[in-house]
Every structure is written in structure tokens, then in C-alpha cells.
Specification:
Blueprint lengths: L50 E5 L5 E5 L11 E5 L4 E8 L2 H9 L11 E6 L2 H27 L5 E7 L5 E7 L7 H11 L2 E6 L2 H8 L10 H4 L9 H6 L6 H4 L14 H8 L9 E2 L4 E8 L4 E6 L6 E5 H12 L8 H4 L29 H46 L1
Parallel strand pairs: 2-5, 7-8
Antiparallel strand pairs: 1-2, 1-4, 3-4, 3-5, 6-7, 9-10, 10-11, 11-12
Helix pairs in contact: 2-3
């Protein structure tokens, strides 16, 4: 799902709309919802739903009432009601699907405090003021971070968002502890000359606002489609038999990756057929302890106490069968009886694949053409060097003979 300007060109390379989050069709923006009810007509006598979804900077969305019965479509820039002044946003969803989204997020249309009104479609003057305010955000963020460092505040200002009429600036920050930023607000108000609002967000919300590329090579889930943040614990990694390495399990936000929860239910359902790994198997040969499990193949590896290097593989059904016999105080002979079924004969399949069984495979090594070429090149170079040396010696001897003759002639003339 993408806009027409983002589609692939003739050369196979994506063009890209280069609108930096203000795409007119809202098909390549963050947290976009596909309006699958757009082509359906309403029954006779039913009025369209007056709720409208409006998106602001970095995927922030709110719901508004279209009390003026404006003809709005996706991509329209509108002026919305704010607690003081007005804000500028983009329409991302209209129609009956808005009511479904509001029910899912538990937002009531009659809640006058949270669901405000849409004033009008934004004029060119509104858009100019809004764009000028957006251009001020990045240099303000650099200065704001420096002010926080000068005041020795343990906080990080991650983003700044201006209201559409440029009357208020919201500073989003993250901090591990409670921060007293009263002095910082005074510095901001004196420097930036606007109303200041400080809003603390979590590390996951910060990553969702800023976006980025994950270790999988795709855009972050929280900044593209994930709307609700569920708690992720290390038990999810244990159930999936992942190594508890914080460098691999943590995302860009520094917390555990949200994708650890995606396949957790499938692993939990598969583990119901597995016996607990701390249950020992009692055999006549000795007690066996679980060393490893393969959830996808349904196999378990056991080793006898004292023989930790020898592992025996059995299925989950066989392990449950042995455990059931142990509960009746019965012992099986050994694990080798069950493990023999899973030892496949691979001798014929991989026998002498590359000739490693031949005793004379190194007697006649193959000549390497590259080595021959290198030797020939070296010989040519040596010959050329020798020829050059001989020529230099000859010229030096000639010069010496000429000098000696000239000296002898001069001496004879003097005498």
C-alpha cells in the first residue's frame, strides 16, 4: 500500500514521494489504516458518521467531530480545535470505519473534553504559519538539549512539536527518574518566546515517534503499525529457548523487543505436549536428566547422571510414557531402546563424498595454473632485470674507457 508517487519506476527503483510525512494520500505514513469501507454506500435514510480521524506529527492521532458537515477526504489539511487557539492536522480516516476505531480505542463521541471540533479546511495562511513553525523545531531541539545539559538535568529531549498556530511548543523528553524542570521552562520561555509544555514519554514511545530500522532490516513495528505496547518479559525468551543476551534481545529503545510476543502463544501451545525439563527419567541403567529440547521436531535429549557427554534422543510421547511408568514405580531397561529408532544410517548417503577415504589422494596433487603463471611472470621479471643490469654495466664500461682515452690524450699534448 503506497501512494502513486511512491510506486516503482520503469528501472525497478522506487521513486519515493519525498514529502517527509505529509503525503497527500496518507498511504505511506506511519500507522496508516486502510479504509476498506470507502466504496460502500450507506443505506437510505442513514446519515454519515461525523467523527473524523486527524493525524499530526510523528503518527499522533486524535478524533474530532465534523459539526460543520464539511466535505472531507483523506489527505485534506484541516484546522482543528485546541485547548487554546487551533491546531493544523491531516485527515487520515473518515466514514463508518472511524466509529470502529473509536470503539476499539474506547473513545466516546460525546466526550467533549477529548473529542473536539473541526473548524474549517486550512487556508494558505494557516499552512504557511504551520510550515514555518515546523522548520523551527529542529534548531530549537539542539538548543533545548544544550540548556538541559547546562542545568545538569538527567533527561533527554527527544522531540519538539509546535501547535498549528505556533502559539505553543510541546517538548517530549525521556528520563529514568523524576526531573525538576521548573528552571528549564523559564529558560525555554525566555529564549523561544512561546508557551511551553513538557510531556514525558517512555522509551518505547520515543522509538515510536522517532522511528528507525530494526535488526530485522525493516522499519520499527511501533512506528509503522503497532499501536498498543504490551509488556515483554524475559520469560518469553526462555520459552522460545533464546539466549538471554541483552544485546540481542533489546531493541533500539533499550527495552526487550516487542516481537518476542508475536510467536509466544505458538510456543506455549507446543510446550503443552512436553514434560517438564526438571523431571528425571528412572531406568535400570541409571537416572537420566533432560539436556535439550527441540520444540519444532518434538524431540528431547537426555543424558545419564555421570555420563554427561553421551546424549540420547527420544520423542515427547516416549518421554511421557517413561514418566507414566515411573509414577507407577516401574523402570524401563534403558534409553537406548527408545533412542535406537531415531539413529538414522547415514553411512551410505555420505560415504566418500569428496574422496576423503582415498589414501593416495595427496600423492599426485593437481597443478595450479595460477602458480605456473606466477612463476613464469617472476622468471620474466628476473630476465628483464638481468638484461637491464648487463646493459647498465656495458654503458658504464664504455664511459670509463672514453674518459681514460681523453685523459691520456691530454697528457700527451702537455708533454
Amino acid at each position: 500500500m503506497a501512494c502513486n508517487s511512491c510506486s516503482t519506476g520503469k528501472d525497478g527503483q522506487p521513486k519515493g514521494c519525498k514529502n517527509n510525512g505529509t503525503c497527500g494520500t496518507d498511504s505511506c505514513n506511519k500507522l496508516t489504516v486502510f479504509d476498506w469501507l470507502a466504496n460502500m454506500s450507506l443505506p437510505n435514510g442513514q446519515e454519515p458518521f461525523i467523527g473524523v480521524e486527524v493525524r499530526f506529527k510523528n503518527g499522533r492521532k486524535h478524533y474530532y467531530k465534523n459539526t460543520e458537515n464539511l466535505t472531507l477526504s483523506i489527505g485534506d489539511i484541516v484546522a482543528t480545535q485546541a485547548k487554546s487557539g487551533h491546531d493544523i492536522g491531516m485527515v487520515t480516516l473518515t466514514g463508518e470505519l472511524v466509529s470502529i476505531q473509536m470503539k476499539r480505542k474506547k473513545v466516546r463521541l460525546d466526550d467533549s473534553e477529548n473529542v473536539l471540533k473541526i473548524y474549517r479546511k486550512a487556508s494558505q495562511k494557516d499552512i504557511d504559519v504551520w510550515s514555518e513553525a515546523r522548520d523551527r523545531e529542529e534548531p530549537m531541539k539542539v538548543k533545548a538539549r544544550q540548556f538541559a545539559i547546562d542545568l545538569n538535568l538527567k533527561m533527554k529531549i527527544s522531540d519538539i512539536e509546535f501547535q498549528g498556530d505556533a502559539s505553543k511548543a510541546t517538548f517530549y523528553y525521556t528520563a529514568e527518574e523524576r526531573v525538576d524542570f521548573r528552571e528549564l521552562i523559564k529558560v525555554f520561555a525566555r529564549e523561544f518566546r512561546t508557551r511551553i509544555e513538557m510531556k514525558q514519554v517512555g522509551f518505547r514511545q520515543e522509538a515510536a515517534r522517532l522511528g528507525g530500522i530494526g535488526s530485522c532490516g525493516r522499519e520499527l513495528c511501533c512506528s509503522t503499525w503497532l499501536t498498543d505496547f504490551r509488556s515483554v518479559s524475559t520469560s518469553a525468551a526462555r520459552y522460545q529457548q533464546l539466549s538471554l543476551n541483552p544485546l540481542k534481545l533489546a531493541g533500539q529503545c533499550g527495552k526487550l523487543k516487542c516481537c518476542l510476543n508475536y510467536e509466544l502463544d505458538a510456543y506455549l501451545d507446543a510446550l503443552k505436549a512436553f514434560p517438564k525439563s526438571d523431571v528425571k527419567l528412572y531406568t535400570e541403567k541409571g537416572n537420566a536428566v533432560c539436556q535439550k529440547t527441540d520444540i519444532f521436531k518434538g524431540l528431547m535429549w537426555y543424558a545419564y547422571e555421570g555420563e554427561w557427554m553421551n546424549w540420547h534422543v527420544i520423542t515427547t510421547d516416549q518421554a511421557n510414557e517413561i514418566i507414566a511408568k515411573n509414577k507407577k514405580r516401574e523402570k524401563v531397561a534403558s534409553l537406548e531402546e527408545y533412542a535406537a529408532e531415531h539413529i538414522s544410517d547415514t553411512k551410505n548417503e555420505f560415504e566418500n563424498v569428496v574422496g576423503q577415504d582415498s589414501l593416495t589422494r595427496f600423492d599426485n596433487p593437481k597443478s595450479n595454473k595460477k602458480r605456473k603463471n606466477n612463476k613464469n611472470n617472476r622468471n620474466k621479471r628476473n630476465r628483464n632485470n638481468n638484461n637491464n643490469k648487463n646493459n647498465n654495466n656495458k654503458t658504464q664500461n664504455r664511459n670509463r674507457n672514453r674518459n681514460q682515452k681523453s685523459k691520456s690524450n691530454t697528457n700527451a699534448k702537455k708533454n
